[in-house]
Amino acid sequence: MPHVVVIGAGIAGLTAAYRAVNAGHHVTVLEAASTAGGAIAPATFKLPEGPLTVDAGAEAYASRSTQMTQLLYELGLANQTVTPNPDGSWLYLPQTGAVPAPKLGMWGIPGDPTAAEVVQALGTQAAGRAAADLTTPMTTWAQRRAQGQPITVGELVADRFGPVALERLVAPVVAGVHSADPHELDIDKIAPGLLDKAIQRDSVARAVTDMRAAAPPGAAVKTLPGGMHRLIEALLDALSDRAEIRFETRVTALDPATRTVTTQTGQRLSANQVILAVDAPSAYDLLSSSTQLTQRPTYGTGVAIVLLIVDAPGLDVHPRGTGMLVSPAVTDVRAKAATHVTAKWQWAAQAATSLAKHRHIIRLSYGRITDPTDGSAPGHDTADADLLAMAATDASAIFGLEHQELNAGLIASKIIRWRRAMPLITPENTSRIRAVQEAARATNWIQVTGAWFAGTGLAAISQHVTGLPLNPLQ
Question: Residue 37's closest CA among 349, 277, 223?
Answer without folding.
Answer: 277
